[in-house]
Amino acid sequence: MLALLLAGGGYARYAYNQNQPDRIWLPLKLPEKDLQPVSKKLEEALRKPAVLSAISKELNLAARFNVPNEEAAVAELSKRMYIEVGEAFPPSDRTPAINVGVSGKRKEHALLGEISQRLQKEVSALFGIKQPASGPF
This protein's superkingdom (predicted)? Predict the structure, then answer.
């Protein structure tokens, strides 16, 4: 009986931890005077239905978000995506930055990473930044 109670408690803790909030973002380090105008430009560019639809189709988000169709996946992606003026945390000190990313649950961490990498491609194309040959950054 005690073993069942401990196993149940362990599973409950695991399930609780997997449903905690999680966020993955790409910090764009910029001078402080450029943060607001660039964040507005990014917001307009990345929230376009064509961009969100392309990301959704490429990553098959309708199935992965468990929604019935592509439009619902685009709406869910738009709801989870954020573009905020904040700070980057390099090892030495905090730097003003624009954070572009997605939020979700901890159990979706791998999917959030894929979406943020795809957002990085869009941001790089918008600013004309050459993508590295491999790796997320």
Answer: Bacteria
